[in-house]
Specification:
Distance between the termini: 30 Å
CATH superfamily of the largest domain: MoaB/Mog-like domain
CATH class of the largest domain: Alpha Beta
Radius of gyration: 31 Å
Number of strands: 28
Shape: elongated
């Protein structure tokens, strides 16, 4: 067996570097920025009001309440066509540019409009300072200022910032297309009744969902029968149209499996036994330069293997610097026993934060075939080789949610 970190390092070393492309801003969510973005203009581009109210000269509000003559109105999107002189005010709507002469805004809730027939006036109830409720030009960003640095993920707020500086497209690392193929005459995926010896194909839907959840583009390569020609055709189609391919099953040492036979013939593969449980067997290599992950066939093992090997490598291919799931320290709510076997165990656990501390307990049966416990798990408790942990002990947890 080889150590987990050695297997992970081998996988990462064989995966290609991220690919940069120009993408429209509308399709950039979740991608990693591949360029520094500098603002070409001030944001906001002009001084404007943060409130509906009246633009005034702050000095005219001294000794409030005071009455000021209303000399005009400015709506959002309109250019000012009137200046504010001594003893005057202009009605103004949120986002509208400040008129010349005004240096403050009084919110409408602190005013009262009067009309004695001689002209509209506004009674200002409060004294306000210079700059009150005024958003200055360049207050958010100045022309020439670094907006976003290369290497950061594009979350919704950053998409909005890019739009605010007039970027309709950006240079970003391409989102990997990841193909998933199932093989095996024992698998059924069409909803029909099971014949003796048959099982449902759960790995492919689960892995496709993991691919999508992780921010990559899932490509369903289908369920392929146990024939070398069909398997080779599916794999070659996969590497021709995808940035990586996932298969499940047939990766244990000594297996004489059609997938293994085909991959050994058309690819440059390494067949590994990793010192972990579940997901000990792993095949990884390339076909025509495209990474191929041979994941174990047991449902839980395939998902754990994806989390430990495929997801980090694919995130690196997508340009992410932070490729691992977050890990935390928690308290074992119940004992998690295990036997020494030279492997690190990853136990499926649920988290409880009800009393302010993070406590974990088993999510159910820990067999590699028991997918329900994996479905209910919030994380994987990392149990080093030994006898496990007792209730109340600290345990490291790899978060899945």
């Amino acid at each position: 067996m080889i150590p987990l970190d050695e297997a992970q390092a081998h996988v990462r070393s064989r995966c290609p570097s991220p690919v940069v492309e120009s993408v429209p801003l509308t399709g950039a969510l979740g991608l990693v920025l591949a360029e520094d973005v500098v603002s070409a203009e001030d944001v906001p581009p002009f001084a404007n009001t943060a409130m509906d109210g009246f633009a005034v000269r702050a000095g005219d509000t001294a000794g409030a309440p005071v009455c000021l003559a209303v000399v005009g109105t400015i709506a959002a999107g309109a250019a000012p066509d009137v200046a504010v002189g001594e003893g005057e005010a202009v009605r103004i709507m949120t986002g509208a540019p400040m008129p010349p002469g005004a240096d403050a805004v009084v919110m409408v809730e602190r005013t009262r409009v009067l009309d004695d027939g001689a002209g509209e006036q506004v009674e200002v109830e409060v004294e306000v300072p210079v700059g009150n409720h005024v958003r200055q030009a360049g207050e958010d960003l100045l022309a020439g200022q670094l907006v976003l640095a290369a290497g950061i993920p594009l979350v919704p707020g950053r998409i909005g910032v890019l739009a605010s500086v007039n970027r309709s497209e950006v240079r970003a690392f391409r989102r990997p297309r990841v193909g998933v193929v199932s093989t095996g005459d024992e698998l059924v995926a069409d909803g029909s009744a099971l014949a003796p010896g048959q099982i449902r194909d759960s790995n492919r839907p689960g892995l496709l969902a993991l691919v999508a959840e992780s921010g990559f583009i899932p490509v369903d390569l289908g369920l392929v029968p146990d024939r070398e020609d069909a398997i080779e055709a599916a794999l070659r189609d996969g590497v021709a149209g995808c940035d990586a391919v996932l298969t499940t099953g047939g990766v244990s040492m000594g297996d004489f499996d059609y997938v293994k036979v085909v991959l050994d013939r058309i690819g440059d593969m390494r067949w590994m036994q990793v010192a972990i449980r579940p997901a000990k067997p792993l095949a990884f290599g390339t076909v025509d330069g495209v990474p191929v992950f041979g994941l174990p066939g047991n449902p839980v093992s395939s998902m754990v293997s994806f989390e430990l090997f495929a997801r980090p490598a694919l995130r690196a291919m997508a340009g992410h610097a932070d490729v691992e799931r977050r890990r935390i320290r928690a308290v074992a709510a119940t004992a998690m026993p295990r036997r020494p076997d030279g492997k690190t165990h990853f136990a499926r656990v649920v988290l409880d934060e009800s009393d302010g501390a993070v406590r974990v307990s088993s999510s159910g049966g820990q067999g590699s075939h028991q997918l329900t416990a994996m479905a209910g798990a919030d994380g994987l408790a990392v149990l080093p080789d030994g006898d496990g942990v007792a209730a109340g002990d600290q345990v490291e947890v790899l978060l899945l949610r």
